[in-house]
Amino acid sequence: SVFLSSVNIFILLSAYEIRISFRRLLYYDVLATAGFYYTPGGVGGFGVLLYFLANEGVGKGATAAVLLVDRLIGGVVSLLFIGVLLLVAPIQWQDFGWRNETLSVLFLLAGAVGIAIWISKRLRDILVKLWMKVAQLGSAKKYLLANFGITALIFLGSGIKLLICVLAVGVSVKDWQVIVFSYGVFPLLGYLPITFGGLGLTESASIVIWGKAGVLSEQSIAAMIVVRFLTMCSTLGLVAAAHGVRRFVAPLWGR
C-alpha cells in the first residue's frame, strides 16, 4: 500500500515535470505514513512530505497540489466503494446511531473552517494559488487516470485485508462484499481532524456496516483491534527499516 501510494505521488509529480528519486520518495512516504495514521486528520503526514520534498527543491505549492489531488482522487474512489456497498447492503443513516452532539461538533468544525477562510485574506490567497496549481493537472488526464487506477487497487487490497482480519478472529462471513467495500468509508472518517486515524469512528462504523454481513459487535471490535495492531506494527516496522536502510545500507552504495 505504501509502495503504491509512493507511485501515485511520483506520477503526479511527473505531471508537473518534477523529477525526484523514487527510492528517496518511498523513504519519505514511509515516514509520512506514521503521520497520516497517528495525527488528527493525518495532517502530520502532509507536514512530513512538505518538509522533505521542499528539501528536494520541490515547491510547497506543487507538493500541496499533488497531495490534495491525490486525496481528492482517493475521495472519489471512496464514494465508488460506498456506492457498491449500498447496493450489496442497504444502510440507513439512522443505523449509525450517532448522537446529535457528534453531528453538531462536525458542523461547527466545518463552519469554523469556512469562517476562517472568509475572514483571512492570506488564507484565501493561498487557496487561490493552490487551486491554480491543481487546475494545471486538468490537461494531464493520463496521470490522473493512472493515479485513479492505482488508488482503486490500494482500496481493493485494503478491503481484502479487512476481510482477512475478520476471518482471522473466527467469523464466518456470509457477504464478503460488505466487508471488502466497507473500506470506502474508513478513509473518509480518518480525514476528520477530531480523532487520531479515525480511532473510535471507524470501530463504530464497522459495527454497523459489518453487522449487515452477520458480524456481531464484539467480533467487529476484535477484528478492528487486529487491524489496528497489524497497522501499527507494519507502520512502525517500515519506519524503522527505512531509517536503518538509509542510515547503514545506503552509504555502502555511495548514495
Report what the structure shows.
The chain is mainly alpha-helical. Helix content is 77%, strand content 0%. The protein contains 11 helices and no strands. It has helices spanning 2-15, 22-38, 43-55, 60-88, 100-119, 121-135, 141-168, 176-181, 185-190, 201-211, 217-253. α1 (2-15) packs across α2 (22-38), α7 (141-168) crosses α11 and α10 packs across α11. The longest helix is centred in the C-terminal third of the chain and has 37 residues, at 217-253.
| Poorly predicted residue ranges | none
User: How far is the N terminus from the C terminus?
Assistant: 25 Å
| Radius of gyration of CA atoms, rounded to a whole number | 19 Å
Tell me the series of helices and strands, N- to C-terminal. Answer: HHHHHHHHHHH
Helical stretch tally: 11
Number of distinct beta strands: 0
- Proportion of beta-strand residues: under 5%
**Helix content range:** over 70%
Structural shape = globular
Overall pLDDT: 78
Keywords:
255 residues, mainly alpha
Task: Furnish the topology, listing elements before pairings.
Elements: H1 2-15, H2 22-38, H3 43-55, H4 60-88, H5 100-119, H6 121-135, H7 141-168, H8 176-181, H9 185-190, H10 201-211, H11 217-253
Helix pairs in contact: 1-2, 1-4, 1-7, 2-3, 2-11, 3-4, 4-6, 4-7, 7-11, 10-11
